Amino acid sequence: MTHDFSTRAVHDGQAFDPTTGAVIPPVYLTTTFVQKSVGDLRNGYEYTRGTNPTRDSLQVQLASLEGGRHGLSFSSGLAAEDALLRTVLAPGDHVLMGNDVYGGTHRLVHRIFVPWGVTLSVVDMSDLDAVRAALRPETKVLWVETPSNPLMTISDIAALADIGHAAGALVVVDNTFASPYLQTPLALGADVVVHSTTKYLGGHSDVLGGAIVLNDDDLASRVGFVQFAAGAVSGPMDAWLTTRGVKTLSLRMARHCENAQAIAESLVGHPALERVYYPGLPDHPGHELAARQMRGFGGMLSITFRGGAAAAKKFAESTTLFQLAESLGGVESLVNYPAEMTHASVRGTELEVPDNLIRLSVGIEDAADLIEDVRAALG
Ligand SMILES: *Cc1c(COP(=O)(O)O)cnc(C)c1O
């Protein structure tokens, strides 16, 4: 019988150690495994770049939460993306991605795959007609990120899966912002889910990681070959820290959503602000779609300042609980100035973000304290 989400997060891939009864599976800090005789392996374990029990435990846990048959974990989100793209792309192929995807994803394709002969174009993924028009016969990958970063645009995964499949493209969803607690793209028709587990899945800003989850056996074994042959695997300690974080994902995400909603509502109409971007607000253009496609609105929100870049930067440097740092998804709240921080790499491209924009990663602290911090920094 299959269990519900929170039960799976705690138990799947996390069986106790049969030799000692240790409740927590050990961290297998080993690079190699003793063979019984030449080539006769114990449970298939030979060398940690190929397989390691701690990485296996994470991969099973992540696949279970995304509702996929196969999970593959990597040393970072970008390593996971790179392994997937190397597996499926060849010179002459075209990649179509959202015009507000994670800057590092755009950089990976634009600076590494394009010089190899792949072509790239970007489109507003929330505009389905624009997506249909931008697909080409040679489009191999449709890359979707929803909610997007930093404008929290919501794209219709089920509709995009249909459109992408009709054009013969592999439909990939970067599910980092939502996490599988809020959204499971495979169930909506996507072929592949990509994660930076560095963010909500790990959840404590202490470990980098990435993952691919998918159902197709043949594609999984091809990505698995790249994982092994190119070697960007997660180390055992990193994998273990991530499994530990994932066990509390449900509790954390529920609190992230609650806090972000409270902060967003407290900011609406503030005279210093031009706009609040949060899908949980009824006037957000993606609100109804998010309510249908997600099980909550997430912990990320952005605000734009009437006072321009100077006001935005001053705010980012004035909060105290919200610490000025890149990244997101940890238990502690962070503030980020995308134009010069997370999105500096897309300056001058079609992905450039407004310079009066601030992005907040709302942590799991007490909402009243966070609201007070933000209000004080707004002056
Ligand atoms: C951080 C991030 C990535 C990249 O992951 P790393 O673990 O930093 O390599 C990819 N996509 C999104 C949406 C991210 O936020």
UniProtKB/TrEMBL annotation:
Keywords linked to the UniProt accession: Pyridoxal phosphate, Transferase
Known EC number: 2.5.1.48
One annotated Gene Ontology cellular component of this protein: cytoplasm
Pfam families: Cys_Met_Meta_PP (PF01053)
EC class of the enzyme, as a word: transferase
Modified residues (N6-(pyridoxal phosphate)lysine): K199
Record InterPro entries: Cys/Met-Metab_PyrdxlP-dep_enz, Cys_met_metab_PP, PyrdxlP-dep_Trfase, PyrdxlP-dep_Trfase_major, PyrdxlP-dep_Trfase_small
UniProt cofactor(s): pyridoxal 5'-phosphate
GO molecular function, a single term: cystathionine gamma-synthase activity
Catalytic reaction list: O-succinyl-L-homoserine + L-cysteine = L,L-cystathionine + succinate + H(+)
UniProt-listed GO biological process terms: cysteine biosynthetic process via cystathionine; transsulfuration
Protein family: Belongs to the trans-sulfuration enzymes family.
The protein, known as: Cystathionine gamma-synthase
